[in-house]
Specification:
228 residues; alpha+beta; seven-stranded antiparallel sheet; three-stranded antiparallel sheet; 4 helices; disordered N terminus
């Protein structure tokens, strides 16, 4: 499994083609919720997409980000804290908790051999949970229609599909990062991940509800949104 992980984010990807550029979709304050929920979510009611930082711990529900049975992940990651979740391309990627979409990348802009930058993730979705934490998933093969900045989603609602876009070394997986929102959009070094997700993924996979809020708040207090 470690060999697979090292073959994921951050390695060469000579066999993958690059598609037409597009910009990140910036958030709007009041978009409607998606009308059709994912396989494990109930229907969402349209409302303003403003997450609540006063949400109680008991009211927050977390789910594993890939809705599939054949999934593996490793607790470590190259260069910075994050996790690569390995699953077949096309498997559903879902919202790990309820919240509002912050930004999406709808086209692969990564150029082979380019320095690390905001396009490493290829197609991606960034979600600001109602718990005040940002959750980022990238290397998607597609982003679900209607998933755009400002839209509210519920835990388990489908956001896209596992893929190998961006700097994925042609390996099907979901790059998963946890961070404080900081600048909200465009702060890619924070967005890609600042705390280790594996302990939370392990909990959510077993239908537990372990929250990263305390760890994220501690990181933000210590680093003031500056990546060491």
């Amino acid at each position: 499994m470690l060999i697979i992980c090292l073959a994921g984010c951050g390695a060469s990807d000579a066999d993958r083609s690059v598609s037409t550029p597009t910009e990140f979709v910036e958030p709007t304050p009041t978009e409607s919720a998606l009308a059709t929920p994912g396989p494990s979510a109930s229907a969402a009611t349209p409302r303003a997409a403003t997450p609540s930082r006063t949400t109680t711990k008991a009211s927050v529900r977390y789910v594993f980000p890939v809705d599939a049975s054949n999934v593996a992940f490793h607790p470590t990651h190259a260069k910075y804290p994050a996790t690569d979740v390995f699953a077949d391309c096309g498997e559903p990627v879902v919202a790990v908790t309820s919240g509002a979409i912050l930004e999406t990348s709808l086209t692969d802009r990564y150029v082979e051999g380019a320095p690390d930058g905001p396009y490493n993730g290829g197609l991606s979705v960034s979600l600001l949970g109602d718990d005040g934490v940002r959750y980022y998933g990238s290397h998607l093969s597609k982003v679900r229609a209607g998933v755009r900045a400002g839209v509210r989603v519920t835990a388990g609602q489908r956001l896209g599909a596992v893929g190998r876009t961006g700097h994925a070394n042609n390996v099907c997986h979901l790059h998963f990062g946890i961070s404080p929102p900081c600048a909200g959009t465009g702060d890619w070094k924070v967005r890609r991940g600042v705390i280790w997700p594996a302990v939370y993924l392990s909990s959510w996979r077993k239908r537990g509800n372990q929250s990263p809020v305390a760890k994220v708040n501690a990181w933000q207090k210590a680093h003031h949104c500056q990546v060491p």
